[in-house]
Amino acid sequence: MKPIVAVVGRPNVGKSTLVNRLAQTSDAIVHESRGVTRDRSYHTADWNGREFTIVDTGGIEPLKSDDVFATSIRDQALAAAEEAAVILFVVDGRTGVTEEDESVARMLKRCDKPVFLLVNKLDNPDRENDSIWEFYSLGIGEPTPLSALHGHGTGDLLDDIVALL
Ligand code: GDP
Ligand code: MG
User: What is the ipTM of this complex?
Assistant: First the structure.
């Protein structure tokens, strides 16, 4: 079985966009609005001949209340984290730290897996990379700036991922 890399985080931070980029496909569904999360989808990625499975969390079923929503994000993250060798925790550098981010972070701290904290949507590295600093407060370690949309940072990220597999 190929090693598993799980992508977790609250809705709309760019998880599916990142999965599409890392797996070089476009079969992870990218949503324009928040309010959807459910299943996990599995994609094959290959970096310099090293194959791994990348798991996107978040699918198509709308959820009801905010409470159920927050619980589901955490449960999704937990389920994905349990089967993963490496976890990619994606946050949104343009909105900053949210309570949902903190909830996911608390869960991740309890599972003993390597976690990359990825601060996404930093499309202009020269101007925006200072946005990463506030994410130290999540207690996950060093935040890495990223633009899943434009690809900034994704080559280095893939190098770092396969080094751990
Ligand atoms: P998910 O819910 O975490 O899977 O997020 P999606 O991948 O569905 O993306 C949510 C929205 O954020 C979409 O409109 C994406 O185009 C946008 N998005 C994702 N990554 C980036 C990025 O690096 N930069 C910018 N500006 N937008 C992004
Ligand atoms: Mg998604």
Answer: 0.99
Using most ligand atoms within 8 A of CB, pick from 15, 17, 26 the residue to mutate for ligand 1: 17
Closest CA to 131 of 110, 145, 152, 118: 145
C-alpha 8 chain-centroid distance: 4
The parent domain of residue 84 ranges over 4-164
pLDDT at 27: 61
Other CB atoms within a 10 A radius of the CB of residue 145 amount to 19
Q: How many domains does the chain have?
A: 1
- Picking from 68, 5, 56, 64, the residue whose alpha carbon sits closest to that of residue 29 is 56
Coil, strand or helix at 115: strand
pLDDT in tens, 123-140: 998 888 889 999 999 999
- Please name which ligand lies nearest the alpha carbon of 17: 1
**How many A from CA of 32 to the centre of ligand 1?**
7
Instruction: Give the whole-angstrom CA distance, residue 39 versus residue 141.
Output: 28
CATH number of the domain enclosing 82: 3.40.50.300
Can you give the pTM of this predicted structure? 0.90
Look at residue 165 and give its three-state secondary structure: coil
Express each pLDDT in 30-66 by its tens digit. 655 444 445 678 889 999 999 999 998 874 444 455 6
